[in-house]
Amino acid sequence: MVVVMIVMGAIIYFISSISDDYEAKNADLQKKVEAIDTETKILRGRFTNIQKNIGDYKEVEKRLADNRLAINRQLILEKFNELKTQYILNNLHLTVTPAQDVKSPLFTRKNSSVNFSVVIVNFDITNDVSVYQLIDALRDVLPGITKLIKLDMAYQNQFDKDMLKEISQKGTAPLVKVEMQFMWYGINYVTPPATAPPGTPVSPVNVPK
Amino acid sequence: MALTLKKRAAKEKVVDDEVAENPARSKTKEKKPKGQRKIKARKCLRGSRFILFIGDEGAILLYIKNNTVISRQFVPDASEQNLEELRASLNLDTKATITLAIDSMDQTYMQQTLPPVSSMSVKKLIDRRLQRDFAPTDIKGAILLGREKSGRKDWNFLMISIERSRHISMWLDFTLLLPNRFKGIYLVAVETEIVVKDIEAAMGVPKKTGTGAEWKFFVSHNKVGGFRQVVLHNGRIIFTRMSQPIGESTPEVIAGNIEQEMQSTIEYMKRLTFSTAAGLDVYIVVSSTIQPLIDKSKFTTNTFHVMTPFEIAQYLGIEGATQPSDQFGDVILAASIATSPKHVLTLTTPEFKKFDRMFTLFRSQRFLGGLIILGLLGYSGTIASDIYTKSIDADDLEHNQSLKIRNLNDLHDEIKASNLDVEKIGDLMDQYQLLLKQCVLPFSFINRVQTVLRPPIVIRQIAWSVDDKTGEGNALAPHKMTVILYLRFPGVTEPDTFKVLSKQLMASLKGALKEFDIKFTRIPQQYTEEGLSVTFDKDVLIQKKGEPPDVVMTFTEL
Q1: What is the interface size between A and B, counted as CB pairs within 8 Å?
Q2: Are residues A102 and A45 both part of a single domain?
Q3: A44 close contact with B: CB closer than 8 A
Q4: Predicted confidence band at B20 (pLDDT cuts at 50, 70, 90)?
Q5: Is the distance from CB of B116 to CB of B155 less than 8 angstroms?
Q6: For residue A23, what are the contacts with CB-CB under 8 A and spacing of at least 6?
């Protein structure tokens, strides 16, 4: 009886190992199938998104071609010098923090990364309408994407005789004191690694639901 | 050796002459001849077994399979040579059980009564009485005969013991060392109750009590014992005797001996309330040479059967036990006891109990082993079934994988055909769109506020802000906009006027900007809604300072 038990134990051990092999194989296959599924879903979502928003696609394609997706510290100084003249910005002070990467996994992509600088601008301007125009202009003249996070406008004085006199003498008179703060985002294209075979897990992306 | 039942005797019913002529009894008398009688099949045990029939003059070993006696072997004593012969026979089938049937002289029977305790307690009382009345080495037991039908309803029981003489001990020691499983010790006299019942059942005598003779007299001429006489009253043993043949061993002398012994016993039975009116059935087992010499006219009985062992074997349906020429009843009695599924009293000894426990343990282990093997087999079956299921799953997954790869390749082909750089521009576009979604501008809010804030109210300052969580990894969390407006109310110097204006303003703002929580976060004392309770001196404050301080309103996006 003991011999029978030993033999049966050996048989069970043997067939258990076969069962385990199958289990491991199935788990591996399941993982691969899920990876292919995810890749297909992401690719399909992205393709559909591009087809639906072909305007954005063209814009990004154009910006990439013109090198207007990445942010550049030197460039913003130049651009604000231009804007200073255009919008008559008095007492202009510009602070730009060093660029740092966005850590959020939401922005992690295989082919690109996002970084940002915080820009703080202080100036005096003659009217608030110019401030709104300036904000609009920034979106066009600066590469990358600007996200305004703070706008403080203090109306200093009303138009009166003294004010008109100052304008006539100096050519300008500060009526609105402005402090503006915005996030300046840049998108950087990264050369992708060698093409992975189908089924290789990919990084999570924003898939339209 | 005799057993006396004085108490029972006092309660025996006196059967009158009319009862003696009971039609049922007459019916018994008018039995069909043997040749025409249909013998009822007797239930018997299945399997193989040995029975060792032990008497004072030797022992007989029977080997039985189902209801067939395969072999029988007589030894005159327990000498080593004889025991070796028996051992050799027993070794032929060590899986067969062994039973002892004792028909020796050294037996004691004592009828006792016990007070009317519960049926659960009576067994303990009997055990105590057995321990008290017999020697510790004796093999002992008791038969419960029932309760008195009147009075205190005392328990009647019969205590039986066998003295563990040297002769019996030798046979017990011999049996103890056998590999065969020991099943018990039976007393031939006690088991005769069942033998007689079986014979009567085979003869067709009604089983119901009261339909036959109350008294039964069974006599068997045995080789290893002598004349074994057993008297049954209402089917239960009431008296037994063992006697040896006297004088020459010719059939005539033996027949005479039997008649004489029986007459002596019947005389004794009369002391036990026996009367011929109560009815008496006699069964005698003797050889065919003695059978015709028994003179039944010497006895007043209802029925009188003188049978050969061969005839008994036929009644009991036991094959191979006897030949027509057999002289003694030992073999058929032993075979009857061995094949009977029921027994009146099973005796044992402490040594046999130990062995039995070991055997039970051993068998339990085997049973447990069998269960484990069965469990292992079941487990193996489950694993095998799992493997089969998993192999099917693996096939399905492989097929699924190839389908998915094909779909992915088709999608790549479709993208390639569309001339859109999904891989490269897709990532950039995702991020571009995400960032654009986060951009919030103050224009809309300021426009909406300006429609409500009309003269005389003047906006002194706008502090607009929106929280940003990009750096915290929560870029898609909804933005929360907060706006602080610093206002002035030129020309408003009266608290009541301010109160009216401020209420109107708040109502208008709340109507226009429902998604904001709006409140006055700072109101100069001069404009406090409870202005009446604070010092408000327009002449002093306004005229001296020129203009009142700002009223501050805060708009927080809900």
Answers
A1: 210
A2: no
A3: yes
A4: very low
A5: yes
A6: B390
